[in-house]
């Protein structure tokens, strides 16, 4: 990782930034500020941010979904894409999963999201099942992708 690039826990003071980026990046499908606030304070999630020279460039959210450790959100601001930020955030997610002794991780991705699917396939994630019309209001199917960590 570049010397001036680092990943840290996000705090309450970062939530306005996150809500703004969420709306810019995901549009109508974005988590609302109220959802973010509630989710952040549930105590069940880990919010992480990647920053360069003190400027946040992307974020991830993870937590348990049943037995599976789940990547619930991942985004990088448009001006910082294709520079390895998402890969660093996924590495960080997998490090946390291993630290917790998790055997399997999972995530959901829209069938239309070629960039994210390529990113996850690069780690060996495979499609577990399809969730018809999972993404609303776009009415797009979701793919559940999973990766077994045993032996990784
Ligand atoms: C998907 C997203 C997180 C990728 O972020 P990024 O920082 O640009 O990704 P990275 O630079 O770490 O790329 C890692 C790998 O992902 C894949 N990838 C990333 N963007 C891609 C694109 N536009 N097209 C094809 N593959 C892509 C490539 O395999 C890439 O490796 P490479 O650069 O060596 O070819 C970013 O495009 C984004 O925020 N999109 C909008 C939000 C979103 O879709 N989030 C995912 C929800 S499941």
Describe this structure in words.
There is one protein chain. The protein has four helices and seven strands. The chain is globular and about 40 Å long. It has helices spanning 15-26, 33-41, 85-99, 114-121; strands at residues 5-9, 45-52, 55-65, 68-76, 104-110, 126-135, 140-148. The chain is α+β, with helices and mostly antiparallel strands. It has one domain (5-148): Aminopeptidase (3-Layer(aba) Sandwich), CATH 3.40.630.30. Helix content is 29%, strand content 39%. Strands 1-2-3-4-5-7-6 form a seven-stranded mixed sheet, sandwiched between helices. Strand 2 and strand 3 (55-65) form a beta hairpin. It binds coenzyme A. Coenzyme A binds next to strand 4, helix 3 and helix 4.
